[in-house]
Amino acid sequence: MSKLWCALLLVLTQLHRGRGCPGPCQCFSPAKVVCADEAMTALPLNISAQARELIVVASGVTHLDGRSFREDLRLSKLVLLNGQLRSVSGDAFERLRELRELEISGNPLLALREPAFASLANLTTLMLNHNNIGALAARIFEALQKLERLQLKGNGLLSLPGRPFHRLPNLQELDLSFNQIDSLPADVFQNNSLLRALSLQANMIPQLPEGIFSHLDLLEELNLRGNRIRELSADVFPHSLRKLILKSNHLAQLHPSLFHKLLLVTHLDLSQNQLSGVPANLFQNLISLKKLDLSENRITTLPGTVFKGLFGVKAIHLQKNNLSSLEEDLLKDQHGLEQLYLSMNRLRRVPHGFFDDLDYRCLVQLHGNPWRCDCGIQYLSEWIRDNLRNVEDVTQVYCHAPEFIRGHSLVSVDEERLVCGKNSSSSDTNSTGIAVDGDGGVHCSIRDFKGQTTIQCKLTKCTSVKFQALFEFGDGSDSERVVSKEWPAPAGCANGTTMAESQFTPWPPWG
Fold first, then answer.
1. Are 441 and 461 in contact (CB under 8 A)?
2. Cα separations (Å) of 188 from 72, 138, 176, 203, 219?
3. pTM for the whole thing?
4. 447: which strand partners?
5. Are 275 and 391 in a shared domain?
6. How many CB atoms lie within 10 A of CB 345?
7. How distant is the alpha carbon of residue 297 from its chain centre?
């Protein structure tokens, strides 16, 4: 900032202070006062009667009572943030009857007396986050019938007394995340029919009582991340949900009809659970789904119809599972997919045509799989080469087998080397052994796969290999044509015991 601007700011500050702004505060408008002073042990009483917002940050104020505010003060917003506030008496806000928004967050506040909010009948927003309150009085919020937004994050709450939200009929947002709640009464939200967003993230909840959300017909967002939920009943979730987060729980299996009522849900997060599989029709009614996250589970296989009918889905995350194979028609309906994450699984190949229905802009993750780079991966190799921009970390898509190209990036491997060896189970492969004279430690076989003939030789001793091929057509012509190529001994050979394996495709295709 230039010296001119600094000087102008200083002048403006002094002007505002000259109009009755308290010393430790800044008053850049008559209606808004901001105070930040660790030495301030009491709220300033000489605040202008025009002030409507008072924001106090990092102050030394430790206690609030009925004398903390002037009688003629007409605040609509009060914020006490990251200070030293330890106690609030029952009459602390008695003179602030026009208050609509109150935040007390980041203070060592251990308790709130039950009548503390009794005079705040006009309050619509109350935020009490990260104060270590520990426990709530049963009727602490009873007078706040106009309250629409309530946050109680990070207070170490162990339980909820009775029905603390029963007299909050206008409540639309409730955040109870980052506490230690280990049980929920079945009727805890019974009188909160206008609730639209509910967060119970990072608690210790093991199960959801039957009917706990049955009265929440307008609930759109439900966050249950980071609890200990092991099972869910089929009708536990309200049909109004648009975003459901079940990440990082202990779910090992899901009821086939668990999500059948959720026609409006657009985001479903089931990541970081213990799922080994999902029912074939689990997602069949999720016609509005945009993002599905199944990552970091233990899924080994997926039914070919599991994503059937999900025409609008934009992202499917399957990374960090145990997938060893994929059904050919798994993505048949996903023409608009923008993200497909398959990294960190156990995939060795994908079915021919697997990616053909994807949008040309779809971003795909494939790294971290033990790809077998033989004839069965030719489709994937060609698709990657044609869609390099669509594959994230494409150079990290490594071959795990066969041994002679292990560790090579798939895009760097010549397609002529993607051939099937003696362990191929393909019915299209014919194999014949070749006798090799002498004791040079070379054992070869010749194979034909879909018109391409391959010589594979296994070396049992450290030696160089020279290959010569004589081509002769059925009519006896061209019998003198010879192709010759020599391979040096494998790197690292020091004695006659090193084992190596090489595959030669001297003239693909030939026969």
1. yes
2. 38, 12, 12, 16, 15
3. 0.81
4. 431, 454
5. yes
6. 23
7. 12
